[in-house]
Amino acid sequence: MATTTAPMSDIDLYSDRSILSPYEDYRALRALGPVVRLNRYGVWAVSHYPQVYQALHDHETFRSGAGVGLTDRLNQAQKGSCITSDPPYHTLARSLVSRHLTPKALRAFHEYVRRWAGTLVERLIARGGFEAVADFGQAFPLSLVPDLLGWPEEEGRERLLDWAAAGFNALGPPNDRTLSGVPLLQEMGEFLHRMSIPGNLRPDSWGARLVADAHEAGIAEQLLPALLGDFLVPSMDTSVSALSGMLLLLGTHPDQWDALRADQSLIPNAFNEVLRIESPLRGFTRLVTRDCELGGIALPEGSRVLLLNGSANRDEGHWDQPDVFDAKRPNAAEHLAFGHGIHGCVGQALSRLEAHSLLAALAERVRRIEVGEPSWRLHNTIRGIARMDVTLHV
Amino acid sequence: MKISVERERCEGHGLCVDAAPELFRLDDDGELVLLHEDGEVPAGQEDAALAAVRVCPIAALSAGVPAA
User: Fold this and answer.
1) Cα–Cα distance between A346 and A230 in angstroms, integer?
2) Whether pTM exceeds 0.90
3) Which residues have C-beta within 8 Å of that of residue A187, sequence separation ≥ 6?
4) What is the CATH number of the domain that holds A266?
5) Which chain A residues contact residue B16 at CB under 8 A?
6) B8 to chain A: which residues are within 8 Å by CB?
7) Is the residue at A108 inside a domain?
8) ipTM of predicted assembly, 2 dp
9) Measured between beta carbons, which residues in chain B are less than 8 angstroms from residue A340?
10) Under an 8 A CB cutoff, do B57 and A339 touch?
11) A42-74: per-residue pLDDT in tens?
């Protein structure tokens, strides 16, 4: 089968400029083709929806067990986590984590989350002005997940956001942002190691049960800290980004906010559309395990692909008017913001529960969401608002 | 055409139900139910079945046409 010479690009997706304004660069990459060699990083950027989808669903050719970041040394440090694993370990590890995170398992928390969301929204209405990230986006992730994990009372949580941010930055190339986070990763690793010792997490918590289940299933001790990290790290920056992004997009589209208020059954699709437009996770890499072809480009065994979820979610070949936020978009559920395939986000039901509850609490009480201009985070892997003023009008 | 569910992999997210409510349902326990026996897809619903298989975020569904 004839394959063309691979297009190449000098675009630096990890420059400050590109991180703050990625969509033009994604569009430029897409125009060059579905698979483009990034000269700066020695990886193949996959930017079109069909090829990102295909690679995510072919986990044997596009392997995660050798790491899903861009820096090999740091890829190795993640061994034990679900994301950095292949079947059969992956199948076992994921089942131990997912049993606490399925929609069915989360039913027990619906009422608690609903009440919590109502309380938060009422408090923010009373305050007048607040900040989207610190006061809204971070509120749920910082309280709910550590509690459910069994985080001990006496341990402060102030490091958690820094650890998670470092964890996600570590998926980037070996730049300053990545490498400056390494000490934080070590700190987090020590914490997770302590927590993996039976008895240190709150009894009956998800974390305690994961440790017990893992022991019973014969999972090696040294893999437990990374597996525990699966509960903690992936749920932080991603959720914060999605929840803050919700305020931005519904605040800047008041007609659609009105539609949501009139019909709350639109909430799930609206959240899908938030995730599509401002996908929290730019993309993960995969290792190519055999000579193959993707999007007409020959990929040799041992090469690495960067699957750009954020680009696929705006691919003009898949979406009608991709840059337009449309809460009623009929195929919004096809977005790849949670990934897809066997590594599809195991926490997505929790993410949806948080977002839907907060949207419902807002829809019941708030006539208009007023937002200022957002500033964006300088982060290798996470697309998220850094700061934005918000006022909720009843 | 027949739909198969990998039961150990299915997590009950329900995107298949949204894509093809004539073919899938989540029961009171949050478990996936195939509405037609053996996952058989009635004529005319193949597109919906394929859409549901594609949208499953966990790759727990597959659709096949059995060999004659």
Assistant:
1) 9
2) yes
3) A159, A163
4) 1.10.630.10
5) none
6) 91, 95
7) yes
8) 0.95
9) 57, 59
10) yes
11) 999 999 999 999 999 999 999 999 999 999 888
